[in-house]
Amino acid sequence: MAPQTVNIGVVGLGRMGKRHVHTLVNRTPRATVVAVCTNMPHELEWARNNAEYKEFDIAIYEKYEDMLNHPGIQAVWVSTSTDVHAIQTKLGIQKGLHVMCEKPLSIHLDESQEVIDLAEKHPDLKVMAAFSRRFDASYRDAAKKVLVERTIGKPYMVRSQTCDLLDTTGFFVRYATRNGGIFVDCAIHDIDLTLWFLDNPVPKACWGTGTLQHHPELAASDDVDNAVGVVEFWGGKVAYYHCSRTQAAGHDVSTEITGTEGKISVNLVPRANNVIVNDKRGMTHEVQEEYWQRFEYAFETEANEFIGSIVNDSPVPVPLKMGQKVMQIARALQSALWSGEVSKWNEKGELIYEGKKETGMNGHAK
Amino acid sequence: MAPQTVNIGVVGLGRMGKRHVHTLVNRTPRATVVAVCTNMPHELEWARNNAEYKEFDIAIYEKYEDMLNHPGIQAVWVSTSTDVHAIQTKLGIQKGLHVMCEKPLSIHLDESQEVIDLAEKHPDLKVMAAFSRRFDASYRDAAKKVLVERTIGKPYMVRSQTCDLLDTTGFFVRYATRNGGIFVDCAIHDIDLTLWFLDNPVPKACWGTGTLQHHPELAASDDVDNAVGVVEFWGGKVAYYHCSRTQAAGHDVSTEITGTEGKISVNLVPRANNVIVNDKRGMTHEVQEEYWQRFEYAFETEANEFIGSIVNDSPVPVPLKMGQKVMQIARALQSALWSGEVSKWNEKGELIYEGKKETGMNGHAK
Amino acid sequence: MAPQTVNIGVVGLGRMGKRHVHTLVNRTPRATVVAVCTNMPHELEWARNNAEYKEFDIAIYEKYEDMLNHPGIQAVWVSTSTDVHAIQTKLGIQKGLHVMCEKPLSIHLDESQEVIDLAEKHPDLKVMAAFSRRFDASYRDAAKKVLVERTIGKPYMVRSQTCDLLDTTGFFVRYATRNGGIFVDCAIHDIDLTLWFLDNPVPKACWGTGTLQHHPELAASDDVDNAVGVVEFWGGKVAYYHCSRTQAAGHDVSTEITGTEGKISVNLVPRANNVIVNDKRGMTHEVQEEYWQRFEYAFETEANEFIGSIVNDSPVPVPLKMGQKVMQIARALQSALWSGEVSKWNEKGELIYEGKKETGMNGHAK
Amino acid sequence: MAPQTVNIGVVGLGRMGKRHVHTLVNRTPRATVVAVCTNMPHELEWARNNAEYKEFDIAIYEKYEDMLNHPGIQAVWVSTSTDVHAIQTKLGIQKGLHVMCEKPLSIHLDESQEVIDLAEKHPDLKVMAAFSRRFDASYRDAAKKVLVERTIGKPYMVRSQTCDLLDTTGFFVRYATRNGGIFVDCAIHDIDLTLWFLDNPVPKACWGTGTLQHHPELAASDDVDNAVGVVEFWGGKVAYYHCSRTQAAGHDVSTEITGTEGKISVNLVPRANNVIVNDKRGMTHEVQEEYWQRFEYAFETEANEFIGSIVNDSPVPVPLKMGQKVMQIARALQSALWSGEVSKWNEKGELIYEGKKETGMNGHAK
């Protein structure tokens, strides 16, 4: 008996696309990568010279539509820039393929709703939102303690930060013009964790602000490189976030969940590994350079669980619509950042007020 | 030659008053505690039975005015509840005594301004605001690194929290009705640290929210037991805070200062001492029970520097008016918490808008 | 072009054998597990009911000789008890197969020398000693810093401990009668690290002692459940070790390398993951339960590098004879423990004195 | 009623003598420093120019005998070099004064026995051995957990290290010729902690070795700058130590106590304060420079408890003879280091064998 495998194609060969291929080839025994696709010339060239791709007989496409027609393909992994996530996911579904879609589905809520609606019409297909932190061993342990073992009583507060290493190459800035603003691009994992740990609370009000410290060119797209936001939920729950593109030591992503009887923190002190150097300066440990080093094995779990849901015809671990709730809050924080005004929801979770970008009193946005 | 000492009286023998007497007797060689004062019967009885007070010949008064007339008294330490700080400080100044006044001077900005004005008319007297964290060795080391050595480049963000151990006796709740709200009572050290580390920035806007988790009786005084606030400053600086009365493990006070080239954290992982226990549960260290355990030696430094400023006729280390700026921000956060609206300042630091308490949309405040 | 893979069989399906199969199937894309072998009835039954083994079409053998004749088999992984490592390795080599052999090769130096000699006669075969810590990311980072970047100057001291969680099932005790004593069974990774980090020093003298705390039945095999040993090397280098079978919190394996200009520690504070729980007791993190949790990804690297050395016909990362040097020191520590006397080597590394087991003055050994 | 105070003189104004005066003046309210004494010209000059000494009216003597005649003197604190501890303690006792004597009393066991005998003839005098770690809050918390709360079951093993910052001035080397060797000078606190935490066990055998890394001139006095030793006690208890003069980061003093149900560590990760710096290198905290920074407040407790035992006529917290047991073990480790042979005791704790220095096989000693 041979193992039941899934033939998968990966679209997008940026930093993460390459890594997803690596994970699928090396650590996902039931996945067979049959094709990759990119329209970026330097990525194409890189792929064509890649020994591993040759060895594992991976076809290389320039056009997404062509890859969708690759013989025997069963699933696609969408790892492109945010602006084409929705259309590529829709095309995959329409071709009858299972789809893993990197977050966020879209920065336009109506566009992402269309995809969700389309997916619901194809219940036989596994269409999944890639909220990778939900597959991390530490977050899962925290969730078990908070939600199952009730270690901290009733959870009511989340502090979470996504602080990236300063990218002096400016790569991310070029990319940032497409991504909907810092809260949309950076905080959505933190918001997702909040909904998870606080058991799907309904937002009530939020506010945020930010600053530009290293990337003044972001002002042209009304963006900042550091932002802080607070979200109040109905029922006395609160979350607050720090997003940063400019950390000196590395990727500093930590989360604290406070409950009536305790607090759980995840990665409060980020460490690249178990090594400490004692020298004249004191005791030093390194910090992971970026989220890959922090979440490498979460991506392995994510890939295996997605492939497993196809092989076993079981529900995907993170439904596509989860991303929609997260995006609503991220957008409202972004509105607050741009306008300086509080965004408000009613008890049904319907957004009843948000400031207009043009009303912006904040120097960073105007 | 005998050491030049200062005869000092302490008013207020609550938890902190007792501790200040202890510090003055045991660790402040140039101070001589000649008197204490309290109008609380159980504190009076405690003091009258105190062997150390007898041994060190400390007079015990019920009336503050009487203590001010104690023969040879040169200074007073005001350690009562906030509502009498201002009047007791004024009376001390008017008697020609040096005064150390616990924070905050008053929750009413006009009242505290009166005291500041009075103190300025008596430049020969040392009148000092007791912002104790400024005397803590770790915060001083952080300040040296941030402000002198410029270790982290230009500082632009502060995260700071004052999270107290849950007080199941309800003591603090009874006290809380006098203290002006959680941001005024808890966040003012965090705000003071912000002004210190960000080099006296001018506030621009702030918002905050909160929740009641353990002390529903606080609703009667429009207060919460956990609050989160964000302050934006002119010039692209940001601070955010968490105040809590309900921590399970102990006194969890940490501060992070982020700059363009690094970040400094103070007490990110609070530890009662150097002991770790390994047992079936894992590795555990205790957390300081309250701010005394955390700041015991800061109080020693504070006391010696106050006495030193008298002996040497040098400026007090923390001028009285510093408290005024801090209080303005704390009050504006409190207004935001009560009203749900953003408080705003102009570039001169004049408050130009704050929501009214009555407009409060927040369930916790109404 | 299909990936070049290696057909491998695993002998021994104890805790580690199962895990090696898991790693080879899930994280070693160039390995194909074609067979497993065990003569333990309960392991056989477990294997025959294993869904993954069926899915991946893994043949199950009772007799090692039969597995060696499995069609197409190219390599074996010897993961049995120590007493058959040598003979199984020899049989594999004689069949013309590549062999990965769990440490130690043998507790008898002459027997292991025979295997080394045999392997040297088959330079075409990859025969490797499984010193798994050499594949751990943290130890590799430490080695890079110590040996390449010279971060700590000249290294001269190693402290290393292998402290296992107390096994209340008594499993290990039954196993221990075959394994040559605590220094041979537990310290050989620590000794291997010492030779690595101190650049193959020549031993000069060693002494050790121990105690029986939880497993008095070990006295029957002259063993202890905790031991401490010191090794002096020619040229002023020193190493010292703690081996324990009885830790309460988990698997506590740490190593410190001290040099003339600094110190590097690996895993000084063992952590199961990034989660910390704050509750009434303080702040607690869990410890890995056993070496699998600590070294899971080291085993992945080890498996891929062994398979890689076959595919690429490159030298194995840890030569078989490395184990021989390590075993000599472990045996000398064991002699010191048994006899209470110092074991001594000359400058060529020839053992010139060791106490006899019968002379033992130590209560634990007699 | 005036506080009951003790007039005390301090002999020795080296690093620690100065600090003891500082502690006695600033943090020991019942002590009055009336005199200091030193025969070192530069210390005399420093003292004569010291403003605090003038202010507190502290007499300065060149001759110890003269200080003993200072009017009203009641106690002396002996803080000189080890070679005169015994004689100065005896002279103090003979003058009818209470004496605090820095460790060790003497490196000659017969000399220290004489002092102990003399002290026992003067039961009215408080004569105390200054084992300062017994006054440290963390060690006391560990002792409460180990000995009173039995947190770790039955304690059976101690690992303890006293590792000092490299002293590039060479000061200590000049001092070292008087101090009896590295185990006598450095390990006696660790041995004292062992006797405390393991409840006064009887030694059975010990061995040690060392190396010279930074101070080759120590070879002239048969000393090393790093040493490791193991002590086996009757009843299955074990302790092992690392002494170092050559650490890069700072004063690294940690202790682990292992019991049948857990382990307690003290200062496993040494930290100068609560500050962590994040920068390009990673996360760094400083280490205390020397034992003063680590034990500053232990010295305060020690001073107050010594003075308290005089004021209250209560037993001294650490009897003089405790030092004698400690010294016996330190000397036996030193013999092992010098001779390369195991030192042995019988069950009564009588030393029955130690190698002769001349037999030394160890290159570092010969």
From TrEMBL, chains A, B, C, D:
Gene3D superfamilies in the record: Dihydrodipicolinate Reductase, domain 2 (3.30.360.10), NAD(P)-binding Rossmann-like Domain (3.40.50.720)
Residues in Gfo/Idh/MocA-like oxidoreductase N-terminal domain copies: 6-125
Residues annotated as domain GFO/IDH/MocA-like oxidoreductase: 142-264
Matching SUPFAM superfamilies: Glyceraldehyde-3-phosphate dehydrogenase-like, C-terminal domain (SSF55347), NAD(P)-binding Rossmann-fold domains (SSF51735)
GO cellular component, one term: cytoplasm
Naturally occurring in which organism (per UniProt): Salinomyces thailandicus
Family, per entry: Belongs to the Gfo/Idh/MocA family.
Protein name in the entry: Uncharacterized protein
Keyword Coiled coil attributed: no
BP GO annotations: NADPH regeneration
Entry keywords, A to Z: Oxidoreductase
MF annotations from Gene Ontology: nucleotide binding; oxidoreductase activity
